[in-house]
Specification:
Blueprint: H1 5-35, H2 40-60, H3 75-98, E1 102-104, H4 107-117, H5 127-166, H6 171-185, H7 187-193, H8 197-222, H9 226-242, E2 247-249, H10 262-281
Antiparallel strand pairs: 1-2
Length: about 280
């Protein structure tokens, strides 16, 4: 962290400049989603706003875009950044199935999922084959596709923002502050899509801040933004497109499932605490 007061003040100015810019340029797309139509085009545009805000901030401050950690980093952290979000999502849904908040999809549900994925017309596929092919394609091709949009977010949040914060804050404070800002940035989408706004705000903020601890850990360890890109994409794909279709919701237990569900908040909190303690131990 910076010691000189003048340097700390300048860093805070940069931090709040970035927050202001990302808020301003994101607002039209948030408005479009909430008041016009929730098009994927608007969502994709939103996810690239943090990158654009980071580039503008660097330009205003007279710094080069090359100062962002563009290097790929160690494959170790890339692999772990795939495994960890897949793991906490799988644990979440195993617990959901175990405690009866939902059940594993039956053959009819899986066949419907196969139709949605376009897996018919290539021969006779049984539910097991559909499940294997669906998970494989979504876990590879869809993760690569999703990375094109999560890259935009992560250039801003993990490629730029947390490094500025780390100049003036501890690892713990960086993770909490950046997670809170990142979660708050999503609030119009939460309001639009939520069925229980208060509950889902609490669970969503818990999940995002917990993820922030893990992603900050891998970003600082790898000195690269790409583990966060992979982590974010894998988390989105598994929690939105792989596990929910393989689950039949128990009536009255809807608030336990999904990316704003109580169970994911509990599980990611455990993972977040583990990585927080790990980072403190390693003096990050």
């Amino acid at each position: 962290m910076l010691e000189k007061l003048a340097e700390r003040r300048e860093t805070w100015k940069t931090i709040f400049l970035f927050i202001t810019i990302v808020t301003v340029i994101t607002s039209p797309f948030h408005y479009a989603i909430v008041n016009l139509y929730p098009s994927r085009i608007y969502v994709g545009a939103i996810m690239w706003c943090p990158a654009i805000a980071a580039f503008i901030t660097l330009k205003i401050k007279g710094r080069k875009i090359s100062s962002i950690n563009w290097n790929w980093g160690s494959w170790k952290y890339i692999r772990l950044s795939y495994f960890i979000p897949a793991a906490y999502t799988i644990v979440t849904y195993v617990l959901i199935w175990t405690f009866g908040f939902g059940s594993i999809a039956n053959s009819e549900t899986i066949l419907d999922w196969g139709k949605d994925l376009g897996l018919f017309g290539i021969g006779t596929l049984n539910p097991t084959a559909i499940t294997i092919i669906g998970i494989t394609l979504l876990g590879t091709v869809e993760v690569i596709r999703a990375s094109a949009t999560t890259l935009g977010e992560e250039i801003g949040w993990r490629g730029f923002f947390i490094h500025e914060l780390r100049k003036v804050l501890s690892f713990t404070s960086v993770s909490i502050f950046s997670g809170f800002i990142w979660a708050t940035w999503h609030w119009p989408l939460l309001v639009y899509y939520s069925n229980n706004v208060l509950l889902e705000f609490i669970t969503f903020f818990t999940v995002i801040i917990s993820m922030s601890f893990i992603m900050s850990y891998y970003t600082f360890k790898s000195k690269s933004l790409f583990p966060a890109v992979i982590f974010h994409a894998v988390s989105n794909v598994y929690i939105q497109k792989i596990l929910p279709p393989l689950t039949i919701t128990t009536k009255g237990a809807e608030h336990w499932l999904g990316e704003n569900g109580i169970m994911l908040a509990i599980v990611t909190s455990v993972f977040g605490i583990y990585f927080w303690r790990k980072a403190i131990k390693e003096n990050l």
